[in-house]
Amino acid sequence: MKIIGKWMGMALLMLPTLLVTDIMAQELKKPTLEDLIPGGETYRYAENLYGIQWWGDMCIKPGIDSLLAINAQTGKETLLVTREKINHALQQEKLGELRQLYQVSLPWADKTQILLTLPGSYAVYDWEADRIIGKREFPKESSNRDYHAASNNVAYTLKNNLFVNDRAVTDEPDGIVCGQSVHRNEFGISKGTFWSPQGDLLAFYRMDESMVTQYPLVDITARIGELNNVRYPMAGMTSHKVTVGIYNPATQKTIYLNAGDPTDRYFTNITWAPDAKSLYLIELNRDQNHAQLCQYDVETGERITRFELEEKHPKYVEPQHPILFLPWDGRKFIFQSQRDGYNHLYLADTQTLTYPDTHSAAAGGSYRQGCKVKQLTQGNWLVQDVLGFNEKKKEIIFTATKESPLQSNLYKMNINSGKITPLDNGKGVHSGKLSASGSYLIDTWSSPEMPRSINLTGTQNNKSINLLTARNPYEGFDMPSIETGTIKAANGVTDLYYRLVKPADFDPTKKYPAIVYVYGGPHAQMITNGWMNSTRGWDLYMAGKGYIMFSLDNRGSDNRGLEFENATFRQLGIEEGKDQVKGAEFLKSLPYVDGNRIGVHGWSFGGHMTTALMLRYPEIFKVGVAGGPVIDWSYYEVMYGERYMDTPQSNPEGYKNSNLKNLAGNLKGHLLIIHDDHDDTCVPQHTLSFMKACVDARTYPDLFIYPTHKHNVIGRDRVHLHEKITRYFEDYLKK
User: Fold this and answer.
1) Which residues are marked as active site?
2) CATH topology of domain 481-732
């Protein structure tokens, strides 16, 4: 009896603890699509410091109502100005008011002035004088605005023409576009205007699309649908012609570079010489296998053939970055190249000319250089971005994958000695903003366990001051577990990284359905050492609903070097699919995965991969949802399509093998195709032609259209999209 009584007493003492534990378990809830998808009413994201920037070497932290300056050495905060004071000054000039200060900028390191972007104007506010000291107006309906702080000049476009300071630079007919991004934003192009260092000259793109076939899109918001034609050059067809102009606001005159016939050529990576007497750009042939750095005289527009710098490759050359002149020596510049198989930095000395012999490069490539060139970085890793220079120390600061292909870390390198020094903690995925002198960095990083951390770091002493450590946005939720690892590619040699997401209540004795989320194309990486290993919100949601979620970065994806990427050349979707099958085989080997219930989902290139996997491997993949899929690469645009596939005329076998219409009869499982009716990236013809092929083959996919969206579904409708995808897998894979 004593023993029983003692046991009962202990049980009573334990009861409150058990109840608390049980209650806590009950309180934990699974996140919903509204919590996980951008556009959701309760969308949860890691805290951030919006608009953080440099004012010289002083860190500026904007808020809603105040602008704070942070001493990069001590971390001490000082109030510069309030929104109330700025708005009072704006009201004095009848310029309206600001609702927050996140979008202001401080481009003048030596002045107490703020640049304000307002509807219809730029205004300059001096916080010491407490007044608006200047403004530059532009039409509210203008686009592509480009303000130069030193000259106070502003360029912008109205419809398809370019203006500078309210004066028309161009007056072009329909079919010609000026001052906007060209070549469909390939080759690192993101804008169409380029101010000289002092802002007294403007280089700009002029694109003649009048010869390009128009593709019809229909606006269904009108009572009678209205036709919206877009210029869309498909692979192997006539492309647009681009020229580069230089406009002088003082003389109001324009010259165009004499680059010869611009037919079937690409002009990219525009850079001004430090003295603004010449302009550099990289010219690429339409085959995209021969790139040349060219220099032009800005007064005459004639090419200066003082030295040569060019690269060739039997597959493709892909220039992505403009050259960067050393701030302490305008005769030398940094350029980036994959000539040794990985993207690295090289230093060119334009004053030391050499005979331009041809040299062998990686994987059958070659290069010629007519000046002295020194390779600065090397190894089986790649440089991702150059952040700037420390002129006093003769250093360049950059991000690279030196620690791991899954990471991006910060480094500095002494140009003279070649010594590379890490500037961060060696973990996770980092990005940086460099101060004016190069002495300090705003280091923003995340890791699998760290949602976001923002720090001020000294580039000379590595002293770090934390500005923000974000809380876990899913705190209090019952979250799935995430694992990463490697498997071998289909070639049996190459390591591929995967990510596996398991339900929070995972039971190793159960058999779970699995979904492969796939992209697989160039310039994308699904698995990193960033926050939650870059797991998407929908993957987390589906794991919460009882699925094993899996992603694999196959050959052809990003951050693994040239040979890894171009293994898919002229046969897109083929080698990538073989690697994804290796991923599916790995899934099947797991005792808790039901090998008869494997699905696949992806968008764009991932839509192509999803459809291809369903058709080529119907015995493996039972259910698929393909969004905005490329079905036939001959329907895709010239720049991207021809880089990776060549033309349909020169590679008929590759286009035939990659054309998923030819495989329509193989469909056995459930396949949902989703497309946007205004998709001007992957035009609706892809999906509609596939539906016709399936009708002819007597196979039965499903179709859903999102009206008024382009190449993806954004805003509030994005939650609807993911609910639609979820229901399809719930209906056909989970049961």
Assistant:
1) 604, 679, 711
2) Rossmann fold (3.40.50)
